[in-house]
UniProtKB/TrEMBL annotation:
Keyword Nucleotide-binding: yes
Keyword Amino-acid biosynthesis: no
GO CC terms: membrane protein complex; plasma membrane
Molecular function in Gene Ontology: ATP binding; ATP hydrolysis activity; transmembrane transporter activity
Limits of the ABC transporter domain: 6-242
InterPro entries recorded: AAA+_ATPase (IPR003593), ABC_transporter-like_ATP-bd (IPR003439), ABC_transpr_LolD-like (IPR015854), MacB-like_ATP-bd (IPR017911), P-loop_NTPase (IPR027417)
SUPFAM superfamilies to which the protein is assigned, alphabetical: P-loop containing nucleoside triphosphate hydrolases (SSF52540)
Pfam families in the record: ABC_tran
UniProt-recorded name of the protein: Putative ABC transport system ATP-binding protein
Organism expressing this protein natively: Actinocorallia herbida
């Protein structure tokens, strides 16, 4: 059985005109097994968000293929939307909850959008799992940032996505809120077998993953298994030095 739940083949993304635009991704290929937690790191502008957006079907690559659970992500907007609803979960830095809906209604929303029965019992079970069982009737503005992000994670998990993508999920949180969110993501992988890909700038956050992928100038330039915060920070510093040196050389 093919255990690789996410495959990227020769992904290229040019923002703007293909000839004069910005090359954000340059021939990125990777395959991630199901049930793994992967962090993506790299200097600012290295293409991390673009990689996540293309892999999640929120943006279209200029070239290359994305396969999720063995199926190619392709087609018109309607097909892409259906594919995303079925296979993809996404967690944003700024939570993106609907402020006028209760926590419970935010979490059942993806089911309703997919035309499925909004299974309240299941949504409540997930909210209990993320530690918000006593907050289901609250509205997001009444919650802390960490609680809002845990609501967003519950919303992303309710459809049991093949892959959950998270773009800087702890970027707007304090240390305590961030730790709770990272532990939750770990638990979703280790306890429930989900697959998570997370972009982060924070070596401590990245060290919660099983492996870290490093991007520089739109290319995959390294992978670290069993990361520690110190090892990640050191690798990142070296990458930053390399990028700065290349920029100086290009300007010579
Ligand atoms: N919509 C866009 N239009 C034009 N250029 C873009 C667009 N989005 C991103 N870029 C460019 O593509 C490159 C990669 O951007 P991306 O946001 O993916 O990098 P990143 O690694 O996520 O950066 P950061 O860590 O600063 O968020 C950058 O040079 C950026 O300026």
């Amino acid at each position: 059985m093919n255990n690789e739940i996410l495959q990227l083949h020769g992904l290229r993304k040019v923002h703007g005109d293909d000839r004069t635009g910005v090359v954000a991704l340059d021939d990125v290929s990777l395959a991630l097994p199901a049930g793994t937690f992967t962090a993506v790191m790299g200097p600012s502008g290295s293409g991390k968000s673009t990689l996540l957006q293309c892999a999640a079907g929120l943006d279209r690559p200029t070239a290359g293929r994305v396969l999720v659970a063995g199926r190619e992500m392709t087609g018109d907007e309607t097909e892409l939307t259906r594919f995303r609803r079925e296979h993809i979960g996404f967690v944003f830095q700024q939570f993106n909850l609907l402020p006028s809906l209760t926590v419970l209604d935010n979490v059942t929303l993806p089911l309703r959008l997919a035309g499925k029965r909004p299974d309240r019992a299941r949504a409540i079970e997930i909210l209990e799992r993320v530690g918000l069982g006593d907050r289901i009737g609250h509205r997001p503005p009444a919650l802390s940032g960490g609680q809002q992000q845990r609501t967003a994670i519950a919303r992303a998990l309710v459809t049991e996505p093949s892959v959950l993508f998270a773009d800087e999920p702890t970027g707007a949180l304090d240390t305590r809120g961030a730790r709770a969110v990272l532990q939750l993501l770990q638990q979703a992988v280790r306890g429930y077998g989900r697959t998570i890909v997370m972009v982060t700038h924070d070596p401590v956050a990245a060290a919660h993953a099983d492996a870290v992928l490093f991007l520089a100038d739109g290319r995959l330039v390294g992978r670290m298994a069993d990361p520690t915060p110190d090892a990640v920070a050191e690798r990142l510093a070296r990458l930053g030095d390399d990028v700065a040196r290349d920029a100086v050389r290009a300007g010579e």
